[in-house]
Amino acid sequence: MGYSSTPASAPTAAPADRASAYKNRGAFKQDDLRRRRGEQQVELRRQKRDEHLAKRRNIGVARRGTGAGVDGSDADSDLSDIDDLVAEEDEHKDMPLPMRLQTYTALVYSSNESEQKEGVIRFRRLLSKEHNPPITQVIQCNVVHVLVQFLASPDPDLVFESAWALTNIASGDTEHTQAVLDAGALPHFIHLLQHPVPKVVDQAIWALGNISGESATLRDLVLNSGITPHLVRLMADGSQAWENESLVGNVMWTIGNLCRGKRPTPNWDLIYPLIPLLARALYAVKKVNELQDTLWALSYITDGDESTIQAVIDTGAVTRMVMLMTQNETSKIIIPGIRTLGNIVTGNDEQTQSAINCGALALFRNLLLSHRQKEALRKEVCWALSNITAGTTEQLQAVIDANLVPLLVDMLANADFKTKREACWAISNFATGALRNPAQLRFLVRQGVIKPLCDLLSSSDVKVLNTTLEAIEALLKGGEQDAVQRMRTGQAHEIKNENAQYIEEAGGADKLYLLQDHDNEEIYAMAFKLIENYFDTGSDDELDADEQGPAVDAQTGQFVFGQPAGVPQGGFSFQ
């Protein structure tokens, strides 16, 4: 098969509906690449995060002696002593549940403060069962409003136990959370953020985290209740609260829930003051779980617009985040970290450059090399790289200099399908952007990208086909530009698109022909255009001559086969 010397125009014989499918195709600007990529990220961003739940139950034993109060007091040193008695001897453990609930309800409604406290603790322990706690049955005992009333008690022990029980009720289904709100708990929990006992504050934050994690509506309800200034005051620089690991972890997790959701997004004016707390936590927190919560919160914030991305960058959090991901191999740190970096590079070119300046590319290379068996992680890295390769010429060069292109090509050829799909996006964006710098496109071709791209033309995934065709179109355009340039500079006597030749040798041209029968109109149109523009199918004159058959002698009326060429006028001349 030959190659057309110049791109052919689209044939007029194409049906109107077919032609319209590719009208103005490829007309998008380079600046649109990252935005277009963002439109395809919904599945990645919405996938279930098993390690990071929107709601959590406190199923541990009562915690004591966690340090001085936020005002310097040691008010919580003897909290929940009665819990020890209940834990040592629970005469009700073999009692049927309905009878236990009746007994505990009577204790809660008692006029004796000691019995009230015992009843609350028993309810709390029942709600702390690891599997299937009887939340609905407890609500039906009509004790939720009593537990809420106990939040105003002067006894910090009773307040703590009541808050714990309500936290676990709010960790249930929507109707369970709503029952806590209907009982008037929200303003009490907000008020408890000023309590002098750290454990009470910690439990109140936990409860608010569960409420805000239920839905965007309840998230906004908590935000509008004034939680932001309380958290800013509580976690001020130098505050003793930073020494309480449990409290810090719950604050970071709750901030994450306050930032979750895009339908609608939260009121960012109420979120911005909390971002410095997250940046501070990256330096102050040592435990993996608390760092995980912090990074997930940052990922939700950076999943907004450019202003939220910039707010995170301005705190200096990106440098610390890259450092933490370099030092920790656990997926609890790496996955939310990659997600945050990937969100940052969906921003403008300057924001993308800030991530590159902080060492993101070297980090990505190390992750790809050290986690070859973790396809989920490699997929996330490819997703992040797909946004960087949608950037400037200088950013494409940074990807080249970081030696990431060979790794992307390798994953395009050998990774599982989901990773291939993300690698294909990264390669396609690179190829399109490299049209501005022919040397970069030639570098991509030298890395062996054409064969795995052509292999993907057999995919049944329409989005992958679309992305692959865009990459191949960019390679063909670049090959045509190179051919014209060689012709102009005298390096060649004819225009020969070497990339078209490589694509045909890799079986790509044959697959493009087959795609002209694809059910998807856009795929058909793209394949049709590439065949017409870059692969010579033979001229119409040649086709007509073949269809006419052998010549007919005008005098005899017989077919003439193999008729020799006529003698030129004046005869042959041999010199």
Automatic annotation (TrEMBL):
Q: Which UniProt keywords apply?
A: Protein transport, Repeat, Transport
Extent of the ARM repeats: 142-184, 184-226
Return the PROSITE patterns for the record. ARM_REPEAT, IBB
One Gene Ontology term of the biological-process aspect is: protein import into nucleus
GO CC, alphabetical: cytoplasm
Q: Which GO terms describe its molecular function?
A: nuclear import signal receptor activity
What Gene3D superfamilies has UniProt attached to this entry? Importin-alpha, importin-beta-binding domain, Leucine-rich Repeat Variant
Q: Where is the composition biased (Low complexity)?
A: 1-21
InterPro entries on file: ARM-like, ARM-type_fold, Arm_3, Armadillo, Importin-a_IBB, Importin-a_IBB_sf, Importin_alpha
- Annotated region Disordered: where? 1-79
All copies of the IBB domain together span 2-66
Q: Where is the composition biased (Basic and acidic residues)?
A: 28-53
UniProt record similarity statement: Belongs to the importin alpha family.
Record protein name field: Importin subunit alpha
What is the species of this protein?
Answer: Catenaria anguillulae PL171
